[in-house]
Every structure is written in structure tokens, then in C-alpha cells.
């Protein structure tokens, strides 16, 4: 069964600075506790990552997956191409300039696992993923641009 989570954070930086951090997928290993390794396998003509291999590990589950990114003005999304333990992963960051030097960041994630985990573990993992995706991103943006 697919599970979804949404998290929202305000970051004291502009949309371009946040998009720069999101596009630097290699740095995920520095600010996302779940990411163990990342490799860009395909990028577009402007250098935006399109196909990315990732090794992630959390709550006793390690997975290697390939995701496909789509980049838009103030938005990035990705979807699962292949994975050992997931059937589905769809995620999206939507960035909205607040007009005061801050940006509203909305993170949405839908995951459907191939393996069965106890409900409390799934809920704890969801909260952790959402926290890393927003608070971890905020901390990295402020570290670079704060």
C-alpha cells in the first residue's frame, strides 16, 4: 500500500539558491542521513541531473534505486525507475517566493514498498524522511548561502 507524506518549511533564501542545492544531488550524502551514495548517470545539456542512482539506508532497510528527475521553474520532481525494495516513489519540491527574501518549500512524497514493515516503523520513517527533506534542506541552504 502506498503511503504519502507532506512537509512544509520556510527557508531564508531565494528560489535560485534552493534550486542550486537541490540540483547538487551529489551533496545528498552530506545533508540527508538516509543517503549513503549518489551517482548522476545522465544530465541534460545545462547540467541538471536527469537520471540518478542512489544507495539509501534507514530503519534497517538498505536500497539501491534509480530515479528520474524533472526540473521546472521553482519545482523539481522525481519518480522511481528501478529499486530493490520499492514499487513506487514519486516526490516533489515546490518552491514559492514569499517576496521577503524567504521561500516556502513544500515537499510531497509517495512511496509503495515491496517489503512489509510494521505500521509504526513506516510512520516513523515517513516523519524522518519529511524532516530530512525540509529541515535538512534548509540547514544545507543556510550553510551555503546564510
From TrEMBL:
Q: Which domain of life is it from?
A: Bacteria
Q: Which residues form a coiled coil?
A: none
Fetch the Pfam families from UniProt.
Polyketide_cyc2
TM region positions: none
UniProt xrefs under Gene3D superfamilies: 3.30.530.20
* Protein name (Swiss-Prot/TrEMBL): Cyclase
